[in-house]
Amino acid sequence: MNYEACIDRLTQYFSSSKYQREVIRAREEFFGNIGVNDSESGDFERNLNLFFDWYLFTRSLDGTLLPPAKTALNLDGFKISAEERPFFEALAQARYCLFEYIKSKDQDHYAKDLITGEKIAVKKSKLNMLTPKGSILSTHFIKD
Q1: 131: how many CB neighbours lie within 10 A of its CB?
Q2: What interhelical angle do 3-14 and 85-92 show, nearest 10?
């Protein structure tokens, strides 16, 4: 099990027909009238990823105070095994952050949270950081 597989499960479950109206309202909130429905657009995949990132981790489901990532932890219809639970709990605690990129060393990347000042180390990452020192990154941070 990994975070990507958990995010895929959350995406599939919370965009299923049961949540169709929710997703439609969320898309209207997120995109407004900017016309992002063109699947041939070069930005389509990026926009869709941004939407689902916001929808799963930030936007509260209608009638609740929790986003899908937190709702899933106690939802009868969303089964989580004991092995998966730590991954889903970490996703539920993900927070949106602005980071300043500091440096990379081998597979380790270092950044500073611009809101809290906390320094973050991402160890043994499969990602290659090809960004200049001092670049600002925005992402959901999942503490593992």
Answers
A1: 12
A2: 70
